[in-house]
Automatic annotation (TrEMBL):
This is Signal transduction histidine kinase subgroup 3 dimerisation and phosphoacceptor domain-containing protein. Residues 104-170 form the Signal transduction histidine kinase subgroup 3 dimerisation and phosphoacceptor domain. Keywords: Kinase, Membrane, Transferase, Transmembrane, Transmembrane helix, Two-component regulatory system. It comes from the Bacteria. It comes from Streptomyces spororaveus. The chain crosses the membrane at residues 62-80.
């Protein structure tokens, strides 16, 4: 229909209608697939030249008409595509904003789980211990209650830190705290860390692995012995938490590293740093949670793009 409206009036209006083929050529570029649009575009320009030549004008006028038709088509095409691109950019910005909000919600939920899971597990166990100590050892019970109060205050501080979006943790501090708490609970703990100085981001993710691993251990096992080890080989640094509580619970934990929300969160954190998280049972029957991450070449805090080999 547009072809008829473009070329039909030439029979009546003649040269006065020479500005219209450019709009037909623009519609061709906008509506047809690229493989058909450009050949049709060239054909329409040539058809316009043939029509113009019928009016008995010289080559210079034909060249002028050809350039005018092409420029008109490209300008209309460009303005139309610009409008579409602006709409696409607007939609993309809205989608990015939605994804940013979803990512922040996920971060908040993940950090809250990692922080409060450990603290609440420790508070629960210490409350049970204090309850048993009250009749016969009131002084010891008072010490445990003091520890509970300190842990609760730390949990409140952690929640506020998560809400502000800043939460740096230290692997060595977490290991020292874990050793102290487990000793109070009667769990023999061995700590051997030789990771050297770590970037803040790597230090935080390994400390989080340690905290979540101990949280799961306190919830799901009855360990009497725990080993916390860590080391560094080149750019790869690892931390492992092993315990002998598997057989005492009457069930064997899954070796699937995504078997729980806490471990799934850790898996996502470790992968962000180009690493690998594994959960398995050693030959001696101990359950081991291990994280390997790859440090950036320059020691920066940004997660590396490659993956560490377990």
């Amino acid at each position: 229909m547009q072809c008829l409206l473009t070329y039909g009036p030439f029979l009546v209006l003649g040269r006065a209608w020479l500005g219209m083929p450019g709009f037909l050529a623009a519609s061709t570029l906008l509506l047809l697939p690229a493989s058909f649009a450009w050949p049709a575009f060239v054909a329409e320009v040539l058809a316009t030249d043939v029509i113009v030549s019928r009016f008995g004008i010289g080559p210079s006028d034909i060249a002028y008409t050809t350039v005018a038709t092409i420029l008109t088509a490209l300008v209309v095409y460009g303005l139309s595509r610009l409008t579409e691109l602006v709409a696409e950019v607007h939609d993309s910005r809205a989608e990015l904003a939605r994804l940013a909000i979803a990512q922040e919600r996920l971060r908040f939920a993940r950090d809250l789980h990692d922080l409060l899971g450990y603290s609440l597990s420790a508070i629960t166990l210490k409350c049970e211990l204090a309850y048993r100590l009250v009749p016969g050892q009131p002084d010891r019970a008072q010490e445990e209650l003091t520890e509970i109060l300190q842990t609760a205050r730390q949990a409140l501080t952690d929640v506020r830190t998560v809400a502000r979006g800043y939460r740096d943790m230290s692997l060595s501090v977490e290991a020292s705290t874990a050793e102290s708490m487990l000793s109070m609970l009667g769990v023999h703990t061995t700590v051997s860390l030789d990771c050297g100085e770590l970037p803040t981001a790597a230090d935080t993710v390994l400390a989080t692995v340690l905290r979540e691993g101990l949280t799961n251990m306190l919830r799901h096992s009855k360990a009497e012995n725990v080993e916390i080890t860590g080391g560094r080989g080149g750019r790869v640094v690892h931390v492992a938490i092993a315990n002998d509580g598997v057989g005492r619970t009457g069930r064997i934990p899954s070796a699937d590293a995504t078997g729980s929300s806490g471990i799934a969160n850790l898996t996502a954190r470790v992968r962000e740093h180009g690493g690998h998280l594994s959960a398995d049972i050693r030959e001696d029957g101990w359950f081991v949670l291990r994280a390997d991450i790859l440090l950036p070449p320059d020691g920066a805090d940004a997660p590396p793009a490659q993956e560490a080999k377990a």
